[in-house]
Design goal:
Elements lengths: L2 E9 L4 H16 L4 E9 L11 E2 L2 H8 L3 H17 L9 E2 L3 H12 L3 H14 L7 H10 L4 H10 L3 H13 L7 E4 L3 E4 L4 H15 L1
Length: 215
């Protein structure tokens, strides 16, 4: 008999490690499909909450300034990123700008109500990290939503209305109050926290330990 497992995935569409982390987690869950009945829920976190709609160029200097790394460390991390992505089936494309993601998070909140949150999250990660498209361009967001079966008219209405802004802000504040400062941060069964884009094997072992503890 499968054991239920609640997974809250706190992340930002703009975070490349979140793309790897989600792909790794889903692969791990597929390997444990006979044992786990997983409920995977996305939650918002903004890496660049004050970023304008036009964004700014992706340059090494920006990352050096924001995270306090050297140029060599940034170059090495980017190479590792591409390698890790390839291992879990995620291909990184040319990203030339960093964008605001607030509208994307509002749309993801609404998509959960429609039962399409996880496929939309995958589509948005691919749209930005794979295709380099703007996560603050509403036409791009509509296109991504349509690709997973959401109605374009409803999507436009949500984006234009400003709906779910308060809900997104409230969730962000909740997880910040819990001490989450980096993403991805993954909470299992409202009890166990695992941070970072873990390898598939690490996710598998962590989930097995949780199931054993629950049993």
């Amino acid at each position: 008999m499968k054991q239920p497992l609640r997974i809250d995935f706190v992340s930002d569409v703009a975070c490349p490690w979140c793309a790897i982390g989600l792909s790794s987690l889903e692969l791990a869950l597929s390997h444990l499909d006979d044992a786990v009945d997983a409920e995977l829920v996305m939650h918002p976190f903004e890496l660049n909450p004050r970023m304008g709609d036009d964004g700014e160029p992706v340059v090494v200097e920006h990352i050096v300034r924001k995270y306090g790394r050297t140029s060599a460390q940034v170059t090495q991390a980017q190479a590792e990123l591409r390698d890790r992505g390839a291992k879990v089936g995620f291909t990184f494309g040319p990203r030339t700008r960093i964008y605001n993601t607030f509208d994307a998070h509002r749309l993801l909140h609404w998509a959960e109500i429609k039962g399409k949150q996880l496929p939309l999250k995958r589509a948005l990660l691919q749209t930005y990290h794979g295709e380099g498209k703007s996560t603050s361009d509403r036409n791009v967001l509509v296109e991504a939503a349509q690709s997973v079966g959401l109605d374009a008219v409803e999507v436009c209405a949500v984006l234009q209305s400003g709906e779910y802004a308060n809900e997104v802000r409230s969730e962000e504040e909740k997880y910040q109050a819990m001490g989450i400062r980096s993403v991805p941060s993954i909470i299992f069964n409202n009890r166990y926290l695992l941070s970072g884009a873990q390898p598939v094997e690490a996710f598998e072992e962590f989930i097995k330990d949780i199931l054993a503890d629950a049993a």
